[in-house]
Amino acid sequence: MNHVSDGTTQLGRATALPASPEQAVLERVSNPHPGTNYVARFTAPEFTSLCPVTGQPDFAQLVIDYVPGDWLVESKSLKLYLGSFRNHGAFHEDCTVAIGLRLHDLLAPRWLRIGGYWYPRGGIPIDVFWQSSAPLEGVWLPDQGVAPYRGRG
Known about the structure:
Structural class: alpha+beta
Number of helices: 2
Largest sheet: 4 strands, antiparallel
CATH class: Alpha Beta
Helix content: 10-25%
């Protein structure tokens, strides 16, 4: 169920972790500065999903940057959505791009990017990057701050 509202149904309430990303309810709230271009950043340093072949856990640091339009993502719903991947089997590329696309569909931001910095399995780290379009001119866009893999920590 993809619930979209200008309110919240989870914030301030006990909410169980969704069983899957498809069941997770992502919510949005009105942007108090809809005419201003600014970057909002979410960092999830302990993102977890499962390898769809082996069932082994995969770990990543996700960095999500977006320039809001009329909507902001409600952070508790984002936390629960990201947590719902814990028992979800998907490749790194699928997880990263699916999160970016779902947020883009929900928020209709002026711009969005996601960096998925995955820890190695089988000796190879796989980093995945997606953005909705070229960055907006005149918007300060800091580096995502995650170094190329050298034993991340």
